[in-house]
Input
Amino acid sequence: MTLKKTRVWVLLAAFAAAPAFAQNIAVVNGTPIPTSRADALVKQLVAQGQQDSPQLQQAVREELVNREILMQEAARESIANKPEVKAQIAVAQQTVVLRALIENFVKAHPVTDAEVKARYDELVKQNGGGKELHLHLHHILVDNEQQAKDLIAKIKGGANFEDLAKQYSKDPGSGKNGGDLDWSSPSAYVPEFGAAAEKLKKGEVTPEPVKTQFGWHILRLDDSRDVAPPPLEQVKTQISQQIQQEKLQAFEEELKKKAVIK
Output
């Protein structure tokens, strides 16, 4: 009878101690490493694309043990008390807290399907009710107006546009391809460039150089077409992200208005 009671007490004691062990993944030189720290790191790695598995959890445990060993050595050397380290720790702490603040805001102010649909309809309306003009352009970019005028004269005289683009264009993206910009909306370019492109007829070259912040351009319109907007489901994620960003900006601006800044 006594033996049975002893076994019962041993089992109860072990059961009571189990939660305490579960709270830590290891104890290094008397300092416990909490399971919550490991869970946070695993969550972070999974969010980055890694697969949660026993192997990953074991790797996280080893990593945190190694970190704790190094942190204890850093404490012995008073590394954290160095002014430059303190400043970096403050910045890192601020980054973590602000990230959590943003996550809380996003959870409390989710973007609704109705908001996304309304924004989509607004964008479609702005583009003329559905279709958007796309242009297939070639261009040559040079540093000065006179050189651009000389090249226009050569093109009018029969010189090949693509050959001149390869030889003279300063645009690293299109120059090597003969100035080919492929299909795009005029609104995708800087205003002066887009406005000049919209005035061209098929096969026409700009009669005068077009000046932008990048230099002097010679444009040629190869073709134009009307493109239907993408379906809502295709752009839903991008629109949702844009609306969420706008909400965050408004939140920040509202806080800034209330703040006393001297």
Notes: Residues 88-129+239-262 form one domain. The first strand starts at residue 24 and ends at 28. The chain has nine helices and six strands. The two ends are 79 Å apart (CA to CA).
